[in-house]
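Thread title: Can someone regenerate the structure for this chain?

I was given the following input by a collaborator and told the matching C-alpha cells would be attached. They weren't. Posting the sequence so someone can regenerate them.
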Amino acid sequence: MKKFINYLKECFTELTKKVTWPTWPKLQSSALLVLVATIILAVVVFLMDFTFQHLMEFVYSL
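Best answer:
Regenerated them for you:
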C-alpha cells in the first residue's frame, strides 16, 4: 500500500511541477486545428462514399 501512495504522490508532483501545460490561446488554436482537420476528413470520406455508391448503382443497372 505504501508503494501505491508513493506512486500517487509522485504522479501529483509530476503533473503540478514538471509538466508544461499549454496556454489558453495555444490550446484553443490546437483545438480549432483538430476541428478543421476532422471536418475536412469527414467531407473527403463522404465524397468517396457518395462517388462509389453512384458508381456501383451505375454498374449494377447495366
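The CA atoms of residues 11 and 43 lie 41 Å apart.
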